[in-house]
Each structure stands twice: as C-alpha cells, then as structure tokens.
Design a protein that fits this description.
Elements lengths: L2 H6 L8 E5 L5 E5 L2 H17 L5 E10 L2 E10 L1 H7 L11 E5 L6 H13 L4 E5 L5 E5 L2 E3 L15
Parallel strand pairs: 5-6
Antiparallel strand pairs: 1-2, 3-4, 4-5, 6-7, 7-8
Length: 159
C-alpha cells in the first residue's frame, strides 16, 4: 500500500489514531492521549507567535521516507520549500523542522529512526517533546542546546 491509497481509502477516514506506513507498506496505527494533542497545539501556538508571517506550520505532516511514510506531529516549511511540496499527497522533501510528541506507543529506538529518516529527506532540525513538555532539539550532527532555526523557542512547553 502507498500513502495515496491510504489517504483515499474510505475505511481509513476519521480514525482516532495516527496512521503511518512502514517500509513494507503496512499501516501502523498509534493511539494518542489528549495531552499529546495539547502539546502539539502548544508547539504550534508558540511557533506561530515567533513566525506570524513566515513559512507554513503543519500538524500531522506526511513525509515520504525510504522506510515508509512517517507523520511528523508538527512541521514547519519555509515559504520556498512549501511552494515545491504544496499539493502533494506526502512531502517528498522533509520540512525544515519535524517535531515528534511522545505517545504511549513510541519507543526510543523508533524516535531515533524517525529522526534519522527525516534528516535523510532534508530536515534541518528535529525536536522531540516528552510526556512532560520537555523539548530536545537536534540537527543532523546530534543534540543541540537550543534550536538554531528558532533560538527563542523554550526548552519546555506547558499544557
């Protein structure tokens, strides 16, 4: 199965789960708690405050990777990159920023793998928000003290 088939399948519409594809085209469903959505919203709100008219912030952004379609919980595209990806079923080039918010089904290994896959597709930064709102920032070289793209973004968000 590919991402276009997933998005067009009427049986997969409006499910209360996050859906991704693994490298074999199998659907992976991850249930999320209310706090997961709240952290997504808070991250979006803070990014929007920093970037009122710059780029495009997306929630649940589908990104093609060599190991299937992964879905970043929050993503940011510059205006230029957005123009090249707008209208596609999934981003073939990762947004400059991909953010994952912890959910009960995530493993540390899965997050390391997703981070690596997003960087392979062109992401500049990857952020991970844990269950307490602590944000860890990464670039392709490893952990960062603060975001380079958005230096004013805090290391913790509260819901």
């Amino acid at each position: 199965m590919d991402w276009k088939e997933v998005t067009e399948n009427p049986n997969l519409q409006n499910l209360p789960f996050k859906i991704e594809l693994n490298e074999w085209g199998q659907i992976v469903m991850n249930p999320v708690k209310l706090s997961h959505s709240a952290y997504q919203g808070e991250i979006v709100n803070r990014l929007r405050a920093l970037l009122p008219d710059m780029g495009r912030i997306l929630v649940e952004c589908a990104v093609w990777t060599k190991k299937g379609t992964k879905v970043a919980d929050v993503a940011w595209f510059s205006d230029e990159l957005w123009k090249s990806q707008k209208g596609k079923t999934e981003a073939l080039i990762a947004p400059e920023l991909c953010v994952e918010v912890a959910s009960m089904s995530n493993t540390q290994g899965e997050m390391v793998e997703k981070r690596k896959l997003y960087f392979q597709q062109g992401a500049i930064e990857f952020w991970f928000c844990d269950n307490y709102g602590n944000i860890t920032f990464y670039n392709s070289d490893g952990p960062l003290k603060n975001s380079i793209l958005f230096p004013e973004f805090p290391n913790q968000v509260e819901i």
